[in-house]
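Help!! Second protein's tokens look totally different from the first
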Amino acid sequence: MRDRRQTKLPALAITHVIVAILLFSAMQTLAFDFAAPFVDPLQTLPKIIESGVSLPGDAKPVTCPVNKDFSNPLALAEAVDLALCNNPQIKAAWATIKVQSGSVGEARAAYLPTLSGSTNFMRTHTTYPGSSTAATTVDGKTIYGTLSWRLFDFGGRDANRKSANSLLVAAIAHHDAALQKTLSDVVQAYFDAHTAKTTLQAKEQNEAIAKNTFETAQRREARGAVSRGDTLQATTALAKASLEKNRAIGAYQKTLSLLVYALGVPTQTRIILSDDLRDKEALESRSLDDWLKIATESHPAVLSARAQWESSKQRITLTRSEGLPTLDLSDSYYQNGYPGQGLSSTQSQVNSIGISISIPFFDGFSRTYKIRGAEALAEQRTAELQDTEQSTMMEVVKAHADAAASLQNLQASENLLSAAQESLNTSQRKYDKGAADILEILNTQSALSDAKQERIRSLAEWRSARLRLLAGVGLMGREAVIP
């Protein structure tokens, strides 16, 4: 007959359970993470995680978040800080650094031993049907513990560690590239908005001049000094100036919308631009070869591609080592039984120490194709590195040429504007005295409008070329772009 007596767990076992429950509750209260009890025991997080990343030439990183009262004019420095704090690509690249530092930790952890253990409180009830032997019930606990340590693996762990380190360097460089791109985009958007604002102001001045000419023509027509034709021509010029001003208003609003997007602020935000830009910012006097050398050494896109190429070479070694023998040390301890088995009827303690050699003899040629794939990936990374270097150098060459040309055009456009303004003033005085006809004043008015547009275009080309040159060599920082 089966013995159905209900026996209680030993008092010691009950005490262990209560202590475990209390300990678990205390750990939860203290927010203790059982899966990761230490923040960074293997020191894999780069220093920039704590200190932050400073742009080239900057003394310290941007402090986020940035609070901005948009009822006041938006300065370029404020626009840069807002974009750097709000851009999602920068945030994603920052998270990638943390993810890759975790991979570095996994690679370093492979050099350390692993220790695992478990304990079980068990009751084993044994009956013997058809036998006079009395049923038995045994209460007790089992303890299992295993220590494993890989001693040798033909360089697989070392290659994996170097590959992870290279990918971490690539992640940091990718974050730097995201900073450079965001800074370039927001500064370009800010410059474009200022250019559109300046264009609008020029069109408003042209409209005012055309209106003044129209009123003068009306007065002279009323005195009989000119014909109706002069007034009609002045009316046509005024209508054209008004049309150009209206188009400039639309272009200005469009650039403001693009600036709002670059800042990462709500789309309904109304922006007022401040007048904090100089007509001419200085450019460092360096030769083209110097700029190219700087780009090769410091451009984050090149650094990221180079680090990924280094990682791909290590992956070849890692893949090859997976098909080679490994040497492991193990130490196991079993008390009152083995995992997956019932409780031993008698107390027992077993300790087993051994060294194992694993030799992968055949895997269906899987390793062969993995190695081929790793080698092909290294070839791909090599081509990508070459392409990145060539495209970066080409952008530097073009930006350097554009910057040199646009810098020379600044003085020429300033001279042109000054001459056109003086010519219009002279024509207006002559027209008021009847010494010039309407065609002369309209021509000088049109020439002044063209000179203003050329001046605005020259400034825009200079700012854009200077910006692209700094971005092309990876030296764009707040101090470099903010006048």
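Here's the second one for comparison:
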Amino acid sequence: MNTALKRAIRRSFEQAAASYDDAAFLQLEIARRLDERLDLMKLAPTRILDAGCGTGFAFPLLNRRYPKAELVGLDLAHAMLAQARQRLPRPSLLGRVGSLFAGAASPLVCADMANLPLARDSIDLAWSSLSLQWLDEPEAVFREARRVLKPGGLLLFATLGPDTLKELRTAFAGLDGHGHVNRFIDMHDLGDALVHAGFANPVMEMEYITLTYADLKGLLRDLKGIGAHTVLEGRREGLMGRAEWRRLTENYERFRSEGRLPATYEVVYGHAWVGDKNNWDDGRKVIQLKIEQRQMGLR
């Protein structure tokens, strides 16, 4: 991802941190559904990474499921982490003393998911709920996740697919020639990226979730509240005029059903396990040679 786009994403979420939870009902629901998938996983992690943790809305879910695990929250935006700090589980007195003597790192880290400041083989579960869609190089993120995961570790994520906000994209089409709705990566391409990053047999699932609104302003207000307004390259600078707003509203009204305006989200879930790690992080295979020595005697 280029630096300018990364700055735009960070700025968007810095500005949305204070209002995020008020508009994040979809994010909370998807995190809950992602957590339910762990019912089927045999895992007892000692250290969990929440990559793209936002305001820490998944912390209570992860802490309730794995109360003995150390939780590390990572996000690109400082303001999001400031909100997340309030949701960090409070360690026991014994845990605080142990961390003090062990020199433990901060449980909150401001960093890029594609460049994790974590040691190799230091995480048992890498969790990411609705963060990958902001990145244009998922394979780089998956390679980093595999690097920090221990052998036998699990990567579990939810992201958004190409049909997300399809009504809004259609309503904007031809309006002014600018990009207004972010493009999201197809589920099959994400599965391929997992394989290329060294994960074996990834499992991908998809479902549609539709929210409804009384008017278009309500939808756009929620998108702004969670920092999800457009961060595309080539996006329009400045506000729309009255005529353009009227056209946009009229275009969206074609989707009204039973008195409400729909907003469709294509939600993609994926998980993959780390094997024995006989590969380098760049995908090169490690070949182990067994040299057999024989003693030969003379007759």
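Reply: Different proteins will give different token patterns, so don't panic. Confidence is low (pLDDT under 50) at residues 92-104, 231-236, 282-299.
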